[in-house]
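Hey, resending since the last one bounced:
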Amino acid sequence: MRGCDPAADPWRRLMGMAYEGIILFGVLWFADYAFSALTQFRGHPGALRTAFQLFTLGVLGAYFTWFWSSGRRSLPMKTLALQLQTRDGDPVSPARALARFAAASALAIGALAATWYLHPALALLLLAPYAWTLVDRDRRGLHDLLAGTRLAHVAPPAAMRSVDV
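The structure tokens again:
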């Protein structure tokens, strides 16, 4: 076990989500274009639409599981000095990274379903996992609590730090 890095502050988390969204736009555009080209999917309701949605969720799951596990980090995480860790500060296993993705997906899909079927104001539930970081002592999101993970602010490598001469 290594020493625990400080928790990522809410602002750094928000900036990470925004930057990750920019990267994911391109990733999903190419993946979903390939799916549509191969299957001739044009957005109509039916089994192919469900397959498209599951494919997109699978691409997201593979992306995040890969970059969150075994000490790896996506470009936005490297830029903002973020790393997903266990509660003890160790690298996250692929299974735990997948559990975090599943928890985050379930919370988002649940909030969207509540919005669609119950009341539009329930869209505010989409903010709950992020808002939880404002009240949690260790700044963990709800999905982090469920998966046993934490988002840490890690020091950049020595080669990246400025040196006074």
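Strands lie at 82-86, 149-153.

Sorry for the duplicate.
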